[in-house]
Amino acid sequence: MDQVPPSKRSPDKVPPSKPSPDQVPPVHENAVAEDHAEKKSTDESNDRVAALTRVETEKRLALIKAWEESEKTKAENKAYKKLSAIGAQENTQRANVQAQLKQIEEEVEKEKAEKVEKMKNKIAILHQIAEEKRAAVEAKRGEEILKVEEEGAKYRKSGTTPTRYLGCFGC
């Protein structure tokens, strides 16, 4: 029974008084059996309360463990989702950079091909100019040889010697 402090008691309620030792009723066999039954029921009641307390504690611990596992799973799923997003972003950025690199390589190859073509054209032009100069030199040589042959024929016909004999040696 709850013990209420005297200051909180209502004035109309009077606590039951304890019987004095001379007022105790005589003990009968039925009373002893009732005391034994009360002790047994009190022990069973205490065992039951202890069992209920143990069950409640186990239930509370199971709920805490389930909550903890749920929170861990949430944290793992959140981390996995973020890691997946980071991986996807990395793959996207890597693909962009590789595309840029490929584009740059294509541009460099195109420029290289254009410059190679220009250099080949320059070489062809230089070769053409050299061929033209060679042809001009060959033509001039042919003209000079023809001129010398004509003069030689003229000198033979007239029977005279050329006045510029050995002219190349400064005579």
UniProtKB/TrEMBL annotation:
Ranges of Pro residues composition bias in the record: 13-24
Keyword terms of this UniProt record: Coiled coil
Domain of life, per lineage: Eukaryota
Ranges of residues in domain Remorin C-terminal: 59-163
Region described as Disordered: spans on this chain: 1-52
Pfam families cross-referenced by the UniProt entry: Remorin_C
Compositional bias segments (type: Basic and acidic residues): 31-47
Coiled-coil residue spans: 87-121
Family: Belongs to the remorin family.
Protein name (Swiss-Prot/TrEMBL): Remorin C-terminal domain-containing protein
